[in-house]
Specification:
Elements lengths: L4 H16 L1 H13 L8 E5 L5 H9 L4 E6 L2 H10 L5 E4 L12 E7 L8 H11 E12 L4 H13 L9 H10 L3 E9 L5 E8 L9
Parallel strand pairs: 1-2, 1-4, 2-3, 4-5
Antiparallel strand pairs: 5-7, 6-7
Length: 212
Amino acid sequence: MYSDPVQKEYSRLAGQYDSRWSFYINTTIQETINRLKINSGERILDLGCGTGALIQGLWEMSPEAEFVGIEPCIEMLEIAKQKLPNSVQLKVGYANNLPFPDNYFDVVVSTNAFHYFRNPVQALQEAKRVLKPNGRLVITDWCHDYLTCQVFDLYLRLFNRAHFRTYGLSECQLKLQDAGLQGITIEKYKINWFWGMMTAKAVKEAKISSDF
């Protein structure tokens, strides 16, 4: 049905995704939420929103905010629709070609999706494009600086076509810089003996007007 390996993989896994990976999903989402402040009335985009778990957590924390999710797998979005309020807008699409106007979102956030992006710098440039001036980008994903993640990354690159690759702190820093983002901070941490994660935060710098 699908030629895209990510769509093919997660159309098959969608029904069992939340239960199969419950500890990993819940923990990484909480770590992301701990590092992200949502202000009243802000518009937030979730890149690779999957079954909507991150949006669900953010909405419970800030129900007055406006949430949008984008995800390539229709089957994952169908599950997200069942758990999220009707006010949440969900779209089929890819991070490297976002169907939104420039300067549209206050926050772009992503958890556990960056290692699937075939063109990560283009995805970051798209995130920057749709962010408002002074808008914030927050990305949580596996960290290649941990040995367990290096081994798992190698295994998946050999045997799982949906997976692309993971990055360490220095690579992530360079990609954010190449996308023209500012105020970059990256924190790495373990959530258990196996999973080594990192959360990167950056800002789209506001242009200073030359008009007097």
